[in-house]
Records
---
Amino acid sequence: MKTNVFMLLIVAFAPFSAVTQNMVLNPSAESDPSSNGWTEASGFQWTRRATGNPPSYEGTYMFFAGPVGGEVELYQDIDVSAYATTIDNETQPFKFEDYVRSFSQSPVDQTKVIVEYRSAAGLVLSSFNSGYGSNTSAWLLVTDTRIAPATTRTIRIRLFSKRNSGTNSDGYHDAISLEPLAPLPVELVDFQAFAEGNKIKLSWQTASELDNDGFIVERTTNGHVWEELGFVQGYGTTSEKHGYHFVDENPLLGLSYYRLRQKDFEGEEEYSEVVSVDFRNLEDFRNLKIYPNPATSQLHLMNLEIDDFDYLLVTDRHGRRVLMTHDLASSLEIGHLEPGIYHLQLNGATTMQTLRFVKN
């Protein structure tokens, strides 16, 4: 029995779309940065440098650390509390950009940028660190896009320059931006498809939903012509996690592809990524059985092809793992399990088979 099962974590249905609002004050050092939006770390001499050698990336000036040695820092705290609702729903992405360049000398001075997502109390919840680098031939874009962690209220942008030679710290920054992106309509955190008996089961989970009417489940064998299999109702607008299931009662022999078409209440639609199942040996699924069912102390697996699988997993009705073993055999001790409904899952490199049983 060979069944290709492809599982994929998906951040969202659609690429982020920008709201095109730069939240950074004085983003290109057109005004003196130390007194216009930015704060120097104690004792340093950040200023601005007019375009020349090298030319600025944008406007007339660029950020310049001045005649100082070692590592120097300039930072700006950006208040994002206006986005608290979508941030706390964990559906609010932000896009950061910074152009960096170094003066041509040897050894070359370096730049670094850190972006910190902070709580109201100043706790760093998530961060991006570019690490030190240098580029003398052209301006280099440093960028990061991420969903702000819940309770984020301030985003701190930290610019660094490090002098390695000469009298000035010649690691430059320019055209800095932080933009809020459109909130995610549906945040899909898991989507998978696998064979269960003689059917294909699809399951997915959302972390949050915005005006979600529901999901149209589609199938194709060639990637061009998609067939609608059914519709699963959504939860509208919610910040809670929700799980969904759909069963393809009549799977096709061979390789099939599945996707979700998410539709909102305005009729707008977005597509998920695609998962695939190679359903080539239908009889093998019918032949693999467990007995007795219900069982009290021991389960027997009939027609188990041990070479097809690497390990066995048992989960309870809440999806929690209660048993796992790599020692596959035709019988399994379950006397220690609490009475209830369980799923036995056999997993291989290209194969997964799930069977349901009841423990008395």
Note: The chain has three domains: 33-180, 186-279, 288-359.
---
Amino acid sequence: MHSLMCTYTKRLRFLLFIIALVIFTIGLNAQDKLNSIGFTSQLEGAFVGDNGLIYNTTDSGLNWSLIPAFTSNKLNNIAVHGNIMVAVGDSGTIARSTNSGRTWALIPTGASFNFKSVSINDSGTGFIVGNSLTLYKTTDHGQSWEGITGLLPTGNAVDLTSISMYGTNRGIIAGMNRKFFLTSDGGETWNLPTSMLYYALNYTSIKMTDSLTAYAASIEGKLVRTTDGGLTWIVVYIDNTGISYNNIINVRAGKYAVAGNGGTVRLSDGNIFVWQLQESSTTRNLNCMAYIDTITGFAGGDNGILLKTNDKGATWSEVEYLQLTGTGTNTSVPVTARLLANYPNPFNPTTNISYSVPFDANVTIKVYDIKGREISSPVNGFRKADSYTAVFNGSGLASGVYFYRITAIGKTETYINTNKMILVK
């Protein structure tokens, strides 16, 4: 009886250990969501995502560097204006970079709104939109922002999801419940379309391609188009599978791309009523897309997925050389502790493990096998508050699933998290 109880206890402990690791992994995956991407040139650009994540590239996306966190809020969208990048997010978060995303500074607003989208026109005037008819304005290329009320003609406090400005005067805001707002005077006044679509659509993304033409994507899988500055709209594509489309862009004149849930990528080239499904190599939701030229593009989405195309968007493959490494160029101390997904994963035989601690701490990262046995400790020592990357070498280990666990113990704070990785030989 005693031996049976011991066996049962060991099995129960092992089961609880695995459940805890799965829960930690799910929590980490939620942090890895990428929401928006922008490029200031063919070389430089940045991704933003949940929990204040920002990744920067200076070599056309061959390598990506983790920017130390300066907020724990979700970042939803990036606007590009020359070398200036402005990122907006939940709880009134605005961050601005003047060097193509290599360093960032928070801009205080005192707002509690969730900012969803930002766009800046050629003159440096820009707008932020968000939940409950939120509208903020800048006239100095995003250095300062002020809340604007009373400009949007509606009786309902609908959520605004996307904005696109073109030139110095034109702009369109898209939102929930069929809402569009139009400006032809640089945002001094905003008006409603002269006619509404029959469909009750909830828009997720809008892109102006010239002063009169724009495309919008919707949760309901319908794509719409205007050629008169937003006064009237037509449906150009209907997806009957129920796919939500999250980001629509203009690749070049006459060519458009849209990304959506389930790894969906569609292209329209020459015929606005034909949107061909492309091979994306993933079923994860895609939230953002951008091209650095007419041939090469990137798409980001849930669970840290990053795709790249080198053939104008015909095929997309997961980037295997993504390097998430602290750059040390941002002097801001991280505000949240994080253990990021290792990269590459799967790996053979080495992989990078990146982490951030917002307080001085004794830090250990221990690696365990599937049976919960400790096999390595790639990090063991005191760390100042900062972001770091450790290299784990799996030489001598068998192929399989392994788990790595961080424990950071400061004077008054403790951080513990776990993730899994796969060694394939």
Note: The chain has two domains: 10-27+338-423, 32-318.
